[in-house]
Amino acid sequence: MNRFAGRVVAITGTGDGQGRVAARRFAAEGALVVGADLDAAAAALTEKLVRDDGREMLSVAGVDLTDEADVVRFVGAAADRHGRIDLLYNNAAAARLGDVTHTSEADFDFTFRGVARIPWLLTKHAVPHLRAGTDPAIVNTASVSGIVGAGMVGNAPLLAAYGAAKAAVIRLSQICAVELAASGIRVNCISPGLIDTPAVAGILGTGVDDRLRGWHEEQTLVGRIGTPDDVVSAAMFLLSSDASYITGHNLVVDGGWVASGGAGRPHRDVVEALEASLAAGLRY
Ligand SMILES: NC(=O)c1ccc[n+]([C@@H]2O[C@H](COP(=O)([O-])OP(=O)(O)OC[C@H]3O[C@@H](n4cnc5c(N)ncnc54)[C@H](O)[C@@H]3O)[C@@H](O)[C@H]2O)c1
């Protein structure tokens, strides 16, 4: 497929995880990718991978996207190179996890800056360039923890600031969809469940306690942890012309975690016990 031939796509957080996969996949479909990351070495590796794929991308590395001047530098670099931005994929985020009572003021502020401030700043400064684009659209990245109070196996209390900040991203997306409609800019959001990236190696207990991965898998209906490709596929759909009638939507990409209430697939023992109970004539 070549859905993005000649389209200018600005992607944040291209140094690792989902952002790296996004840079490679958009470039593979003909997009003119402009990426940004705080981590210059990681961003350089992504650039090399894209070149090894036989494609090109412009990488603006060493930018802190919580900083307004750096955001202006990034979107300015994209516009200088290509004269416009067609699509904005707000992927980058950084957070510090903790429960309500133990989250420090510094960690709370860091998380809100790293999660909610970045897509707002990017949208603010990309919009003038998006208005110069063709069929412009934005996708923001929230999380299932912005939708429900839980979000971890065992309801581990880690997501106080992160979940609240991701809820802000969902609402920001809806507000932007309304405010930018007159400019012809569609705005959607993605809420991933647990996605296997280096960022969540601790949550998956990689190499330390492999039961954690199994527990997470059991909580989904699909029966596995998500991959960066799962999320990027959804973002590509929302940023493509196939989604031209979709705006203000929050697409949950979680293997059915939210739909099952985090309880996963029907449990055979429980189902059998219920069937026996109902067969005995008890009421619902
Ligand atoms: N991995 C998951 O389980 C999961 C689940 C739900 C939502 N998400 C969201 O998906 C998105 C991508 O997550 P990921 O797992 O790929 O993360 P990641 O940590 O692997 O990648 C994020 C990238 O963003 C960059 N970045 C962070 N802060 C930055 C800043 N201030 N300026 C510039 N670059 C910055 C990092 O350097 C990193 O390269 C994030 O918004 C994250 O909150 C992830």
Automatic annotation (TrEMBL):
<protein>
    <submittedName>
        <fullName>Glucose 1-dehydrogenase</fullName>
    </submittedName>
</protein>
<dbReference type="InterPro" id="IPR051122">
    <property type="entry name" value="SDR_DHRS6-like"/>
</dbReference>
<dbReference type="InterPro" id="IPR002347">
    <property type="entry name" value="SDR_fam"/>
</dbReference>
<dbReference type="InterPro" id="IPR036291">
    <property type="entry name" value="NAD(P)-bd_dom_sf"/>
</dbReference>
<comment type="similarity">
    <text>Belongs to the short-chain dehydrogenases/reductases (SDR) family.</text>
</comment>
<keyword id="KW-0560">Oxidoreductase</keyword>
<dbReference type="Pfam" id="PF13561">
    <property type="entry name" value="adh_short_C2"/>
</dbReference>
